[in-house]
Known about the structure:
Blueprint (H helix, E strand, L loop, with lengths): L1 H4 L8 H13 L3 E6 L2 E6 L1 H9 L1 H26 L12 H20 L3 H18 L1
Antiparallel strand pairs: 1-2
Amino acid sequence: MLEDKTEGWYSPSPGIVYPTLTYLEEAGYVTAQTEGAKKLYTITEEGRAHLAENRDFVEAVLERFAAVGRKIARMRRRSAEDDDGRREPNLPPLVKAALDNLREVAIKQLEGDAEAEAKIVEILARAAGDLRRN
């Protein structure tokens, strides 16, 4: 569900899922039943009541995940092609997000300050040099 909401950006690992299920079971919000090598978790009445009491919070968190997913999807579409219509190399999502953020900040700086171009070019040239050296 979270992977779908975030457009594949976040998928909880077993190291998150299983301790969470254990906590929910210990809190009485779910029960676990073994079926072969697997466990089947079922929400309890107490769990339903707790979920109902916290429905607004849960929906807000899920909506935030969905908003992140929509933003990631937009960034992926935008970064799939550069301004000349050429395909960009397949970059990791966080690098793409950082480059998109840099692009947005640079554009805002240019809009607000006609003399910002030289400073932006200097910063980008320095960053490129730093990357080449590493």
